[in-house]
Specification:
single chain; mainly alpha; two-stranded antiparallel ribbon; 266 residues; 7 helices
Length: 266
């Protein structure tokens, strides 16, 4: 792992911070392309990505602080120490506010954001791996097990590099979402993102060392299940809405055809 990648004029460039910057740039670029495809302003996509990232980090830090109030220290206020689901909440609020302010369709914006968000998450997890942020898993004797002796949370025995598992899963999810985007409505695409990302976190926790809080599940697993359930609800709702709209359109076309005058005979 490489917590510090290189230095510029004596200033160290940290892999954690650089990965977050790259995640923002990649996410904003991909979202801009999606906005162009659906007929929205590309620059507005960049603005949404920026503010969603800023408020996402604020909420992710607040979530981390609240979750660690029993052993809070000044060190926790800076550097690493963010919770993904807190960031998702903060970013979602920012997106909703900006979408409403600019009169955009929230469903279309959510659908456009699904794949770019997954790509950005994957890039961020690679940064967590390079920084050795402590989110790795249980000890393992598998060939790809890795030790993190110089990580933020030092580990001298080979453990599961869960950050890389999650990064690979995020990129795979993004590819699936782009494929689904050709066949599903926007809200169903975002629902699919919630389902896949929730299940991915559920599986990742199997090899991660985290406290079990309810029925043998970690907090992240419970949130992952909630995310998947919400995603299924959105998919069902969007599918039913599409069927209803199709039925109404077909009925209207049939009525119009019935009311059309018959062509005069010769």
């Amino acid at each position: 792992m490489w917590p510090e990648l290189f230095s510029v004029f004596g200033v160290g460039i940290q892999s954690y911070g650089l990965s977050k910057a790259l995640a923002l740039l990649a996410g904003a670029y991909l979202l801009g392309r999606e906005f162009t495809r659906i007929g929205y302003d590309k620059d507005l996509a960049h603005s949404i990505a920026l503010w969603a990232t800023i408020w996402g980090f604020v909420a992710a830090k607040l979530y981390f602080i609240v979750a660690n109030l029993d052993h809070l220290s000044w060190h926790m206020l800076g550097g690493s120490g963010f919770v993904w689901y807190g960031g998702l909440i903060g970013g979602t609020v920012a997106v909703v506010v900006l979408t409403r302010r600019h009169g955009l369709s929230l469903a279309r914006v959510a659908g456009a954001m699904a794949a770019p968000l997954s790509v950005a998450y994957g890039i961020g997890r690679i940064g967590c791996f390079l920084a050795g942020d402590g989110t790795y898993g249980k000890p393992t004797d598998l060939p790809w097990g890795m030790a993190f002796p110089n990580g933020a949370v030092p580990v001298d025995v080979p453990v599961h590099p869960v950050q890389l598992y999650e990064a690979a899963g995020a990129f795979l999810i993004a590819a699936i979402l782009w494929a689904l985007g050709r066949h599903l409505q926007p809200l169903a695409v975002f629902g699919s993102y919630l389902v896949f990302s929730g299940l991915a976190r559920l599986l990742a926790e199997v090899v991660r060392i985290n406290q079990r809080v309810l029925i043998g599940l970690t907090e992240a697993q419970l949130i992952g299940i909630a995310s998947a359930v919400l995603g299924v609800i959105l998919i069902i709702r969007d599918t039913r809405g599409s069927r209803t709209a199709t039925a109404v359109s077909t009925e209207s076309a049939s009525s119009a055809s019935a009311l059309s005058p018959e062509p005069a005979g010769r």
